[in-house]
Task: inverse folding
């Protein structure tokens, strides 16, 4: 987890609006960076730092929606709050479907704006936390032997030891040993806990190993 | 007959020759009648000239015999007879010793006296016919048996009565006359007539003064006086005078009207008078002579009744003295009346009026037609205004999104700034400079929003088309600014290429902007199917070959099919799903109302270009 302060990236070609919003967010305590166009933003290489995007729909050159799509393609997962001078339903639906946090119309009140930014940053933080936790679990999972993973799949699928033993062609006692071993490796103390972790890792109930 | 008689008479008058009147062919066989015209004073006095004319006319035309006319002038006024009389008589005895005179025409008392005195010696067979002898002078004398005539009555009383009728305010009568015996006779006559006529009137006599002194005295007369002018053959200084000339000067000098009773004074200064007609006197004397020639006995004819004076007035004098002509007696003869324009030019006035009426009618008709045409033109203009307005509303309606964006941008900034300031103040750490900076930004954005609204309002308002100098570069730039947001939303690059050398045009800014709006929006519409990277509209201003301004709007759209080109500017022609097809037809109406031209060119698949030209402002140097 990065300790860096989250950054609100404001992309709007209207300098005066950009200045005003930047000013507002800074006073609200955020780190803010402004960009004139989608291109400006991409060139600045925001990297993987935490933050969110406050994006004008109508930009010279590639539009806000274009930028949103491009970021998604490049795996940049910054949450996007759209701002537009004139929002039509079609555009807003398209933006929200593509994962936008909110679609605000100028002039926007402080309340909704700050709420949307807070929500976006929270979502980013949550995503980052989820991502790092998943990474840790994956490492644990990676430490399991193939046989233990097979047993894990069976346990998560709710099978009895006897059934698992039959499935993998091993003695029931061997299965019990693997089971204890993998519970310990995964750091869980109950089957319920193991099922939740497996779900987080995206392991499907039928117990097929991750591809 | 009259002509030949008269020319004969003239010849007779000049040469004293026999004149045979053809109308009296029988008379030609008779012995000629000899007539002697005897005048006591100047025979060229205007009165005698007028009288003789009438008298001799009658004699010549009616005498039963050829007339031989003789003339003698005693001129006694200038040469008192006692000095010359013997010599004159001697001369006449020689002249008339062998001539038988039939009639002696005696003018005035002096001539009558002379004739009566010497007739038996000089003209024993002649009858004496007198005229211009006052009736009063006859009363005290006995006339010879062969003496007859027409006396004259100078009617001082009637003249004064007339004067008082015309000038009721008169309190004083000033009698002006000369010092010759004739003049004194006249004064005596007047004195007798005026005596006791009106006891309230003061009567003064200016009769012994020199002409100059008399005129000076007349000039000082008070307004309640009148002048009664008699005669002045000689003034108090003994200088001979012509009465009518004296009258003229008296009338000039006098501050009050002058009255008199000689016909020859009429038109020379008197306002009015009771006047015995000279022509009547002459005619009647002539008639008397003719009757004698015809054989009537003088004794039987006797002295005739005098000619009755009649009222004669001079219109110019009445006007000069402010006398109302309606005061004149009904039978009074008003002479020298200047006819009014109406009396004089009645037919010309009628004709002029008719022409004026006809012209006025023509002018009125033309004016009405002009008004009608103006009204029709106005109606058409008004329709164009309405239509253009509707067109603007329509095109602006399509641009709502972009316009909202234009307005919301500054509004958004303002709100954000205000919120920022609010939070800054809440935080308690606000620095004055920061707040001031924020306020400055708010102000700037507010003005920006206002400017957008102003531009919109100008375009949306219904307005009266102006005719003013138009910088088309500026006009184009403003439209481009307005459409930038729309262009961005559509992913179109909107570019202007403005030629600084393009001349100024004349016209209505809003209407020309409307044409540009239409053409640019059309251009963007045409590129809906064009790849995003190629969407580009170029608006170019330039100076055309003929010196006008040309504006071209080029797109990279689908172009225009050749068969659509001629129909583009017709009303209701459209290829769009939406739209009435009025935009370009309105654009054409606007451009044509500006004396310009608008047309389209298709570049095939490369796009299309719409161009219009506007005449350059006249006074702009080429």
Result:
């Amino acid at each position: 987890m990065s300790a860096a302060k989250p950054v609100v990236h404001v992309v709007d070609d209207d300098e005066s609006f950009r200045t005003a919003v930047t000013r507002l967010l800074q006073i609200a305590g955020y780190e803010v960076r402004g960009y004139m166009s989608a291109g400006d933003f991409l060139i600045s290489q925001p990297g993987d730092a935490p933050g969110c995007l406050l994006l004008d729909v109508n930009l010279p050159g590639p539009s806000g929606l274009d930028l949103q799509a491009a970021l998604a393609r490049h795996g940049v997962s910054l949450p996007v709050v759209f701002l537009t001078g004139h929002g039509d339903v079609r555009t807003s639906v398209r933006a929200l479907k593509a994962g936008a946090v909110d679609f605000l119309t100028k002039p926007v009140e402080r309340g909704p704006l700050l709420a949307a930014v807070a929500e976006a940053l929270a979502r980013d933080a949550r995503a980052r936390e989820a991502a790092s936790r998943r990474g840790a679990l994956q490492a644990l999972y990676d430490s399991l032997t193939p046989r233990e993973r097979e047993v894990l799949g069976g346990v998560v699928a709710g099978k009895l030891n006897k059934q698992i033993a039959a499935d993998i062609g091993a003695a029931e006692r061997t299965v019990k040993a693997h089971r204890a071993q993998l519970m310990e490796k995964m750091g869980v103390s109950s089957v319920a806990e193991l099922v939740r972790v497996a779900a987080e890792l995206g392991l499907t109930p039928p117990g097929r190993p991750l591809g | 007959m009259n002509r030949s008689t008269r020319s004969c008479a003239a010849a007779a008058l000049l040469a004293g020759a026999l004149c045979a009147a053809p109308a009296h062919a029988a008379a030609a066989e008779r012995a000629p009648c000899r007539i002697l015209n005897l005048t006591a004073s100047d025979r060229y006095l205007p009165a005698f000239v007028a009288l003789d004319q009438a008298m001799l006319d009658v004699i010549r035309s009616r005498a039963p015999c050829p007339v031989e006319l003789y003339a003698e002038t005693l001129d006694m006024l200038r040469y008192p007879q006692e000095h010359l009389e013997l010599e004159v008589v001697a001369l006449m005895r020689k002249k008339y010793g062998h001539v038988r005179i039939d009639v002696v025409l005696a003018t005035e008392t002096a001539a009558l006296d002379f004739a009566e005195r010497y007739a038996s010696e000089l003209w024993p067979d002649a009858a004496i016919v007198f005229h211009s002898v006052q009736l009063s002078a006859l009363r005290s004398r006995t006339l010879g048996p062969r003496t007859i005539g027409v006396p004259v009555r100078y009617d001082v009383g009637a003249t004064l009565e007339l004067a008082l009728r015309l000038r009721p305010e008169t309190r004083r009568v000033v009698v002006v006359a000369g010092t010759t015996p004739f003049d004194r006779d006249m004064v005596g006559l007047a004195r007798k007539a005026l005596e006791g006529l009106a006891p309230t009137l003061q009567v003064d006599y200016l009769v012994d003064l020199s002409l100059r002194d008399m005129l000076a005295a007349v000039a000082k007369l008070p307004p309640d006086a009148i002048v009664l002018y008699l005669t002045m053959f000689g003034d108090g200084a003994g200088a001979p005078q012509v009465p009518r000339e004296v009258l003229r000067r008296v009338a000039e000098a006098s501050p009050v009207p002058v009255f008199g009773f000689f016909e020859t004074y009429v038109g020379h200064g008197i306002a009015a008078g009771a006047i015995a007609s000279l022509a009547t006197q002459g005619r009647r004397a002539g008639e008397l002579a003719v009757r004698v020639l015809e054989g009537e006995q003088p004794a039987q004819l006797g002295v005739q009744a005098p000619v009755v004076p009649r009222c004669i007035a001079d219109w110019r004098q009445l006007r000069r003295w402010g006398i109302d002509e309606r005061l004149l007696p009904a039978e009074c003869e008003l002479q020298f009346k200047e006819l009014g324009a109406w009396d004089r030019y009645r037919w010309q006035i009628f004709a002029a009026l008719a022409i004026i009426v006809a012209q006025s009618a023509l002018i009125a008709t033309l004016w009405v037609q002009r008004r009608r045409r103006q009204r029709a033109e106005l109606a058409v203009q008004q329709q164009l205004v309405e239509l253009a307005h509707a067109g603007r509303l329509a095109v602006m309606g399509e641009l709502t999104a972009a316009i909202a964006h234009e307005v919301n941008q500054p509004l958004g900034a303002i709100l954000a700034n205000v919120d920022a300031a609010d939070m800054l103040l809440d935080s308690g750490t606000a620095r004055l400079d920061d707040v001031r900076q924020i306020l400055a930004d708010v102000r700037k954005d507010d003005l920006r929003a206002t400017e957008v609204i102003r531009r919109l309002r100008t375009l949306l308002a219904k307005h009266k088309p102006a005719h003013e100098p138009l910088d088309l570069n500026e006009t184009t730039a403003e439209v481009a600014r307005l459409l930038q947001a729309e262009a961005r939303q559509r992913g179109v690059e909107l570019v202007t290429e403005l030629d600084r050398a393009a001349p100024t045009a004349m016209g209505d800014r809003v209407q020309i902007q409307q044409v540009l709006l239409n053409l640019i929006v059309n251009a963007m519409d045409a590129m809906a199917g064009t790849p995003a990277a190629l969407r580009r509209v170029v608006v170019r201003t330039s100076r055309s070959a003929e010196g006008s301004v040309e504006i071209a709007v080029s797109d990279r759209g689908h172009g225009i099919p050749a068969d659509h080109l001629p129909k583009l500017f017709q009303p209701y022609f459209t290829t769009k799903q939406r739209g009435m097809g009025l935009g370009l037809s309105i654009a054409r109406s606007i451009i044509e109302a500006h004396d310009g031209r608008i047309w389209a060119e298709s570049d095939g698949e490369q796009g299309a270009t719409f161009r219009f030209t506007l005449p350059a402002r006249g006074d702009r140097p080429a």
Observations:
- The radius of gyration of chain A is 23 Å.
